[in-house]
Amino acid sequence: MEPSDPLRDNGPMRWVDNLYNEIQIKRGIIFHCKLIEFVFLTKIGGYLMKSLARISLLVVLLTLSETTIFGLDKQDTEKSPPQGSTAVMIQPSFTINPDKTAVLIMDYENDIVGMLPEDVRGPLIERASTILKEARLAKIQIIYVVVQFRDGYPEVNLQNKLFSSLKQSGRLVEGTPGAEIDSRVKPQPGDIVVTKRRVGAFSTTDLETILRSKNINALVLFGISTSGVVLSTVRWAADMDYSLAVVSDACADRDPEVNRVLMDKVFPWQATVVTSQEFLKAIGAKDIK
After folding, report:
1. Is the pLDDT of residue 33 over 60?
2. For labeling, which of 52, 53, 72, 101 is most exposed (least CB within 10 Å)?
3. Calpha distance 265→235 (Å, rounded)
4. Helix axes 12-27, 43-65, angle to 10 degrees
5. Of 158, 155, 279, which is closest to residue 220 (Cα–Cα)?
6. Residues 270, 236: contact at Cβ < 8 Å?
């Protein structure tokens, strides 16, 4: 039988032990760590080293589990979106400043739209068209983002798994019908078109220069696909501290489950996820069903 530990059974070490156990239970984190205990010739030396080892492990747990001593963690300060919902509801105080906002419609090109099921294309295009029409009436800058390549695909590196396969398909070449923006949502005078050679809207483009020159700090974005251009753009823009809103029902992905997870679980951490009707209401549009 192990002799009682006077430093652990009384005072601070009992508190340390209790907190150590509470953290493991609360966070559900099992750390398979083994700390080497140095045993001195005297018993009190062994007890001291065991206590120091336990304190060291506690510090590691506190750091990795992001738990504070007073029990305040991320869940106490940031609320996740309700399970099963497809959008985070806009609060009544939500407003859009047209002078500081741009609407990004991304990859609505014939080749890409054509990859979606027929029953998805029509409603998607209709919602996108309404968003663009009402945003123009609200004097919000519209920016189209398209992915296109020169003839022969000189921009494509064979090490790029996604685009090297695209090169084999022959799609999205500049000047071809498939690379053109769908005629139902085509650009109007005053709109800006940005061409990219990669997935995200900021990569290989001058989008950042355009936004800064117009003093735009908020983006409302939607596109095809959700797991491609939308995800990449949200991540990049969030890192550059733009205020973001993703229009959920104007985005589409060939995998509906991936689309749902991104809208429900991923995007709300960095953007406000809204429906097209919620966005239209926020800008005071009259075309609201």
Report:
1. no
2. 72
3. 14
4. 30
5. 279
6. no
* CATH T-level topology, domain 98-282: Rossmann fold (3.40.50)
> Could you tell me where the DSSP H helices lie in 72-181?
74-77, 110-113, 118-137, 161-169
pLDDT at residue 123 in the model = 97
Contact present, 10 and 16 (Cβ < 8 Å): no
Alpha-carbon gap, residue 104 to 238, rounded angstroms: 14
Residue 254 token pair = 């060939």
CA–CA distance from 120 to each of 107, 115, 132, 222 (Å)?
Answer: 16, 10, 19, 15
Question: Alpha-carbon Rg of the chain, whole angstroms?
Answer: 27
Give which of 72, 9, 70, 62 is closest to 31, Cα–Cα. 62
Per domain, the residue ranges of the chain are 6-65, 98-282
> Closest Cα partner for 110 from 169, 176, 155?
176
Tell me if the bond preceding 243 is cis, omega within 30° of 0: no
Token pair belonging to 190? 């005053």
Enclosing H/E stretch for 280: helix 276-282
The pLDDT of 251-276, averaged and rounded, is 96
User: Measured between alpha carbons, how far is residue 253 from residues 12, 49, 180 in Å?
Assistant: 55, 56, 19
Read off the pLDDT of residues 34-68 as tens digits, 9 standing for 90 and up.
433 433 334 445 555 555 556 555 544 444 444 33
Tell me the residue length of the chain: 289
